[in-house]
Design goal:
It is a single chain. The chain is of the alpha+beta class and 105 residues long. It has one domain: Ribbon (Pemi-like Protein 1, Chain: D), CATH 2.10.260. It has a three-stranded antiparallel beta sheet with strand order 1-2-3. A two-stranded antiparallel sheet has the order 4-5. The protein has a two-stranded antiparallel sheet with strand order 6-7. The longest helix has 15 residues. The protein binds zinc ion (ZN).
């Protein structure tokens, strides 16, 4: 089932429109009702957010910069590898937004 193309209707009969939500401090895809503002989180992203939250509680998302040769290396926590389906050898690209460092697959 392709949830992206699904036209969702809220219980109040309002139309749900696609949006980005913040859940547990994590950006997730979802829908918001144009009438009652009820929010619905994309089930895939809900699962991701739960995994990331679990890892965060165990401090498993904290990594240290380590020097390897002339570069600095950061490790990618397993929770992120799994939630983002990252593979060994995959290319990632750094991006900087304000104070945030972003790794783009
Ligand atoms: Zn509604």
């Amino acid at each position: 089932m392709d949830l992206e193309k699904l036209q969702l209707k809220c219980e109040c009969k309002g139309m749900m429109k696609k949006t980005q939500l913040k859940w547990k401090g994590i950006e997730v895809r979802g829908w918001v009702c144009s009438k009652c503002k009820e929010e619905l989180i994309h089930p895939e992203d809900a699962q991701k957010a739960l995994n990331i939250e679990k890892a965060r509680k165990k401090n498993a998302l904290k990594v240290k910069l380590r020097k390897v040769g002339k570069s600095n290396v950061v490790t990618v926590p397993i929770a992120i590898m799994e939630s983002e389906n990252l593979k060994d050898g995959q290319q990632l690209e750094w991006s900087v937004e304000g104070k945030k460092l972003i790794l783009l697959p």
